[in-house]
Amino acid sequence: MKYFVILAFIAIVGSLVAALVFMVNTGEDKALRSKKMARSLALRVGFSIVLFASILLAWKLGYIEPTGRP
């Protein structure tokens, strides 16, 4: 589970960086840039939802337990 969370965070940050690159890149057509940037941001949202759902599922199945800090 730990490696899955790390991989998901890397995917989220990677798609955010890709969106930044598409936003700053001035060599392409503006419509194509916006389409690529929107797709990258949509992937970031999708990765975040999958990560959140996976954490909830792991908690529900008992793989992880919430612990309170004193």
How would you summarize what this structure contains?
This protein is an all-alpha fold and 70 residues long. Helix content is 79%, strand content 0%. It has two helices and no strands.
Mean pLDDT: 87
Total helical elements: 2
Instruction: Write down how many β-strands occur, each being a DSSP E stretch of 2 or more residues.
Output: 0
Report the portion of residues in β strands.
under 5%
Biggest sheet details:
none
Q: What is the 3D form?
A: elongated
What count of domains describes the coordinates? 1
Q: Measured on Cα atoms, how large is the radius of gyration?
A: 16 Å
Describe it.
The protein has 70 residues and is an all-alpha fold. The chain has one domain (2-61). 79% of the residues lie in helices and 0% in strands. Helix 1 packs antiparallel against helix 2 (30-61). The radius of gyration is 16 Å and the shape is elongated. The mean pLDDT is 87.
